[in-house]
From TrEMBL:
PANTHER family: MEMBRANE TRANSPORTER PROTEIN HI_0806-RELATED. This is Probable membrane transporter protein. It is found in: Cell membrane; Membrane. It comes from Cellvibrio zantedeschiae. InterPro entries: TM_pro_TauE-like.
Length: 268
């Protein structure tokens, strides 16, 4: 990896961290399409472009998830009993999701990713939140919900907030607490996802140097380092910038990047 490549990964991490701080979402929506494009430029195996992008994005989310968890815990915004109950399902669902993703070829993965990001973008534009209409379910049901959230998160390399926050809000959890609890859930998602992709890519031939399974570590370190500094800046700017307008612009960006990724993968 030369200096230009390193600069690209650092820039991607910085931008991802900034948006994560602004909107409180994971970076998979940005990282996966851009990593796919960068990996093509680095002449990585075409059949594993999306797998490597998902895996590298998941691994890069781990340090961000730790920092976010700590910040929300200090504000007493995490319902830890819920985290403990949902975590087994999260770990299982995310880990299993990486096996499904590794089985699928790049094209169906890209199609699913693009469709899901279109859903996320529409959710951001409409800004509709589910009305609280029930209480939190029991332990078994929470594990089941966690499995579903984890499975989807593994396929699109997100921290789960897009699914976890609406579910908790629907269950009469106040929005700030739902966001904090979702941040805590994001750590087992990122860890289990990164581990699963590392295992599934372990015996794959022709992967580039400096990989562990499907994870390309130079990109992970560069992106995680840059996002560590820009995420707090994004959180600070969130209190002074027109967030509703920025969310709509960000939604357009998500759709554009997802379509670009889809056309790139299908074109190859």
């Amino acid at each position: 990896m030369n200096f230009v490549d390193l600069l690209c990964f650092l820039s991607l991490g910085a931008i991802t961290g900034l948006f994560a701080g602004l909107f409180g979402i994971g970076g998979g929506g940005i990282m996966v399409p851009v990593l796919t494009f960068l990996f093509i430029k680095l002449a990585f195996p075409v059949e594993h472009l999306v797998h490597m992008a998902l895996a590298t994005s998941m691994a890069a989310i781990v340090p961000t998830a730790i920092a976010s968890l700590r910040a929300h815990h200090k504000r007493r915004a995490v319902i830890w009993p819920v985290v403990y109950k949902v975590a087994p399902g999260i770990l299982f669902g995310t880990f299993a999701g990486t096996f499904l993703a590794s089985y699928l070829s790049a094209t169906p993965l890209a199609i699913f990713f693009s469709c899901f990001m279109a859903f996320v973008a529409l959710q951001m534009v409409l800004d509709q939140k589910p009305k609280p209409s029930r209480q939190l379910p029991g332990s078994v049901a929470l594990m089941g919900v966690g499995s579903g959230i984890g499975g989807v998160s593994a396929l699109v390399a997100i921290g789960g907030g897009t699914l976890t926050v609406p579910f908790l809000t629907w269950c009469n959890v106040a929005l700030p607490i739902a966001i904090g609890t979702s941040a805590a859930v994001g750590l087992p998602i990122a860890f289990s996802g990164a581990l699963g992709y590392a295992i599934n890519g372990w015996s794959v031939a022709n992967l580039p140097a400096h990989t562990l399974g499907f994870i390309y570590w130079p990109a992970v370190f560069a992106m995680a380092t840059a996002s560590f500094f820009t995420a707090p800046l994004g959180a600070k700017l969130a209190h002074s910038l027109p967030i509703p307008l920025l969310k709509k612009c960000f939604a357009v960006l998500l759709i554009s990047l997802s379509l670009q990724m889809l056309f790139t993968v299908v074109g190859h």
